[in-house]
Design a protein that fits this description.
Number of strands: 17
Strand order of the largest sheet: 10-11-13-12-14-15-16-17
CATH architecture of the largest domain: 3-Layer(aba) Sandwich
Number of domains: 3
Largest sheet: 8 strands, mixed
Shape: globular
Structural class: alpha/beta
Strand content: 15-25%
Helix content: 25-40%
Number of helices: 14
């Protein structure tokens, strides 16, 4: 009804008003003068376009001025209207007086049925322009799984099973794999095809005691090897992409952090990246210093996140842009902990300063606009993922909850939910409507070894809280690994599964 009234007013007041009078708000400000320089120029249209692209944030006062076509919304139609007025194609907007508004409202009320019918017949509201999204590409579920026998086992078995149904391809120790080829180092690489929709876990073993850790299989799986130098059971596993490995490009930059220093940013584009054409899905991750195998800046090793994307591409998928944000300094605990309330007493000493909101704002208002301006990255929430582990898993959850309009997917690995007790979480979470269709997809991982045992109760509580509160259970996946540990080796193995499930590839 409000839009109908505005249309009728525009018709009734179409003639006889000067530019200055028609464009002035009741407080004397000039409608359309978003930059407050006393004129309506192309700079104002540009600022509106930047706001739509999330490159700037308009204040409430600027929002009011930016509504140039008087439809109570700020969108591309306002910028277009300004440009047409400047070019003399259209007349400037005409502000109704309070008296005229009341009179016109009364008229509309008296002749509501006839007038509404006439206006609706004459007026066709054009859909607002939407941002282009990245194409959805389905990846084949049957993929080639390789195991480099770098321990020189005399026999190699693949124990394949489904962690959800318990179905086994064969009883332990599984199927002996005899098909192999030699790599450049002379090691035997055993391989077989696996339907990852049917079997989503594998344990590599020699059939007589030596075995790898439990490994998640997905459409982004390819090559594996034993990365632990010891001969103990449950050996750590490394990953690699058989085809297209290291074929993407890495870019590095620094962006000014709100507290004053320059924060390092890594941006990786896949081999099929093009600067124009179809947009690309983008994953934003905390702890950028630990993500890329050629950029480790500490002793923890890396997730080798590019392997997941390159493996997915070799299995028929499309590339994804990866953005790593550095948290390798002494401020990590502070930056990756939101201030949603008091932390539990035994953690107060380490988490007395909590600036996670500032980090969240930095990601949304600085990093994302930079990436979307300089790379062919989709702006749609359905294409953007926020991910992290440990404190980064907590912060990723917080960022995704605060900005579902920017992130449609959250990968929260080994999240430090335990920093806050149930009362604090209940207080924070009550502001969200879990039943909303706009709630993001959420992947949560936790193990059962070392520090993971301390995190597990809070993870289980959070899952029950969210699903019990109405969050669509089909949009939350909780993965608990008996052998799972709190380290980069495990996050490297879980990350590909989270990407495939969240993006539904």
């Amino acid at each position: 009804m409000k839009r109908i009234i505005c249309i009728l007013l525009a018709t009734a007041l179409a003639a006889g008003m000067s530019l200055g009078a028609s464009a002035l708000l009741s407080d004397g400000r000039l409608r359309g003068d978003v930059d407050a320089d006393g004129r309506v120029t192309v700079k104002d249209a540009t600022r509106i376009q930047m706001a739509i692209a999330a490159l700037v944030v308009l204040s409430d006062a600027e929002q009011e001025l930016a509504d140039y076509n008087l439809d109570s919304k700020v969108n591309i139609l306002d910028a277009t209207k300004i440009q047409k007025v400047i070019a003399g194609i259209e007349n400037p907007p005409e502000e109704p007086t309070e008296t005229e508004t009341a009179a016109q409202t009364e008229t509309v009320t008296e002749t509501q049925t006839a007038t509404e019918t006439a206006v609706q017949t004459e007026t066709v509201t054009e859909p607002e322009p939407t941002e282009p999204t990245a194409p959805d590409v389905k990846v084949r579920s049957t993929v080639k799984i390789l195991f480099t026998n770098n321990k020189n086992w005399s026999s190699v078995y693949f124990y394949l099973y489904n962690s959800e149904t318990g179905e086994e391809a064969a009883q332990w120790p599984g199927k002996e794999i005899k098909t192999f080829k030699a790599n450049s180092m002379g090691e035997k690489v055993y391989y077989t095809n696996v339907d990852t929709d049917k079997y989503n876990r594998v344990v590599f073993n020699n059939g007589s005691g030596a075995k790898s850790a439990n490994v998640a299989l997905s459409k982004a799986s390819s090559g594996f090897f034993i990365s632990d130098s010891s001969v103990k059971r449950g050996m750590s596993v490394g990953t690699y992409a058989e085809n297209g490995a290291d074929s993407g490009r890495m870019y590095r930059t620094t962006l000014k952090y709100p507290s004053g220093y320059n924060k390092k940013i890594w941006i990786w584009t896949p081999a099929d990246y093009k600067a124009t054409g179809d947009k690309f899905k983008t994953i934003y991750l905390t702890d950028g210093q630990n993500l890329f195998d050629d950029d480790h800046t500490d002793s923890y090793g890396g997730w080798e996140v590019t392997d997941a994307v390159e493996s997915m591409m070799s299995n028929g998928g499309r590339g994804v842009i990866i953005v790593g944000i550095d948290n390798g300094n002494s401020l990590r605990d502070s930056e990756l902990t939101p201030d949603i309330g008091d932390v539990v007493p035994d953690q107060k000493a380490d988490f007395s300063v909590r600036t996670g909101e500032q980090f969240s704002d930095f990601v949304v208002n600085t990093v994302m606009p930079y990436v979307q301006k300089h790379y062919n990255s989709s702006k749609s929430a359905r294409d953007n993922m926020i991910a992290g582990s440990s404190s980064g898993g907590l912060e990723a959850f917080y960022i995704g909850m605060e900005h579902p309009d920017r992130f449609g997917h959250i990968s929260s690995l080994s999240p430090a939910y335990l920093l806050f007790d149930e009362n604090v979480w209940n207080d924070y979470l009550k502001k969200f409507d879990f039943t909303s269709p706009d709630m993001p997809r959420l992947y949560i991982y936790n193990g059962k070894k070392s520090l993971e045992t301390q995190l597990l109760p809070s993870v289980l509580w959070m899952y029950d809280k969210l699903t019990g509160g109405g969050w669509d259970s089909s949009k939350i996946k909780l993965v608990i690994e008996d052998d799972g540990d709190h380290n980069e080796s495990w996050w490297r193995l879980i990350f590909p599964d989270s990407v495939c499930w969240l993006y539904e590839i």
